Amino acid sequence: MRRRRKGSGRVELWPQAGLLLVAPASTLLVPNSHPQLDSHSCLPAGSLPTADLREEFLKVKAMAQVPVNLDLCPSTWEPLEPAQIQKLISRSQEAKKFAYCPYSNFPVGAALLTQDGKIYSGCNIENAAYPLGICAERTAIQKAISEGHKEFRAIAITSNLKNDFIAPCGACRQVMREFGKHWYVYMTKADGTYDVSTVHELLPRSFGPDDLKKSK
Ligand code: THU
């Protein structure tokens, strides 16, 4: 069962987009029942658990009579708890130990957290036929997908880089984006310190499954 945490989200009304968005901060705005979302009420921070913020967001999204453009959303809801972040990073460090990288000698580990709380880890797996190598992130994603999970909350990535946060390659960003734009990527240094961005922040103005459905 997922823990509920109070007060870790902010919902903002972006009238241009007809969108409520949730960001880790202090103010909470929720709409009144007006379907055009042209007015809203303000609740004090912490008055709803973040899980309810998500519900609220989905309600508003359903009510919106203007197109909802998630590209404008700089962040997502339900940031991870510190303990979850540490666990994910530690799982990515464990996975790095299994990296098969005799050509680059650049081991990478990843750990992917699904919406229902499971963790799938992966490492990079290279090949003598170089282009067949696969990154740690995609190993983890493919493992999760192949076991029936396609809703993700976060991925942690680890390498041996001491002074830099490991950043996912472009191909991995695109594969992450296939499964949503608003989930977290924890990029770590070898000592476990991290920097975090959403998939959307790493791959803005992206192409995804919805684009295939647009009018032609
Ligand atoms: N690599 C990853 O697994 N993930 C990244 O985020 C960056 C690069 C791998 C691919 C290749 O096996 C090695 O690191 C060197 O590029």
Topology record:
Layout: E1 10-14, E2 19-23, E3 28-31, E4 40-43, H1 50-63, H2 82-96, E5 108-114, E6 119-123, H3 136-146, E7 152-159, H4 170-178, E8 184-188, E9 194-198, H5 199-202
Parallel strand pairs: 7-8
Antiparallel strand pairs: 1-2, 3-4, 5-6, 5-7, 8-9
Bound molecules: tetrahydrodeoxyuridine.
Residues 101, 104, 106, 108, 124, 126, 133, 135-137, 157, 166, 168-169, 172 line the site of tetrahydrodeoxyuridine (THU).
Describe the protein:
This protein is an alpha+beta fold. The chain is 25% helix and 22% strand. The radius of gyration is 19 Å and the shape is globular. The relative contact order is 0.12. The protein binds tetrahydrodeoxyuridine. Tetrahydrodeoxyuridine (THU) binds next to helix 3.
What percent strand? 15-25%
As a percent range, the share of helical residues equals 10-25%
Question: How would the global form be characterised?
Answer: globular
Helix/strand order: EEEEHHEEHEHEEH
Q: Which regions are unreliable across 5 or more consecutive residues at pLDDT < 50? A: 1-51, 65-76
Q: What does the main sheet amount to?
A: 5 strands, mixed
**What is the count of helical runs?**
5
Roughly what is the average pLDDT, rounded to an integer? 76
Q: How many β-strands, per DSSP?
A: 9
Strands ordered across the widest β-sheet: 6-5-7-8-9
Bound molecules: tetrahydrodeoxyuridine
Structural class of the secondary elements?
A: alpha+beta
Measured between the Cα atoms of the first and last residue, the distance is 43 Å
